[in-house]
Amino acid sequence: MTEKQISTSLQLFDSVSELPDQIQKLMHKAVEARLTAYAPYSKFKVGAALLLENGEVVAGSNQENASYPSGLCAERTAIYAAGANYPDQKIKALAITATSEKHDVLEPVAPCGACRQAIAEYEQKQNEPISIYFTGTSGKVIGVKSLLEILPLAFNNKFL
Ligand code: THU
Question: For binding substrate, which residues are annotated in this chain's numbering (predicted)?
Answer without folding.
Answer: 62-68
